[in-house]
Amino acid sequence: MEHEMRAEYEEGVLPHADTPVKIWHMVRLEGTIAMCGRELPPTSATQSAQVWGTPRGEPFCHSCGALYLREHPGDIG
């Protein structure tokens, strides 16, 4: 199954190109429900799952990370 990372922002903050990301979550491709169950705005920033585990993917949701590793055990750095 394909995945991508989707941004969560501080409460009440609308996503824009320069909005700081509170935390990154993993979603199934083009989805808005994170693997941890959090609903994310469809307009929030996304980036490739390949960024997971790199500085560009931080901070990252620990729950999403654990669930992602269960589906992709070979992706450990």
Distinctive features:
alpha+beta, three-stranded antiparallel sheet, 13% helix
Largest beta-sheet details: 3 strands, antiparallel
- Give the termini distance in whole angstroms: 19 Å
- Based on CA atoms alone, the radius of gyration comes out at 12 Å
Name the beta content range: 15-25%
Order of helices and strands: EEEH
Instruction: Report the total helices.
Output: 1
Unreliable runs, pLDDT <50, ≥5 residues?
A: none
Number of strands: 3
The domain tally reads 1
Helix content: 10-25%
| Estimated structural class | alpha+beta
Give a verbal description of the structure:
With 77 residues, the chain is α+β, with helices and mostly antiparallel strands. It has one domain (3-75). It contains 1 helix and 3 strands, in the order βββα. It is globular.
Chain-wise SSE layout:
Layout: E1 3-8, E2 23-28, E3 46-48, H1 62-71
In a few lines, what is going on in this structure?
This protein has 77 residues and is of the alpha+beta class. The chain is built from one helix and three strands; from the N terminus they run βββα.
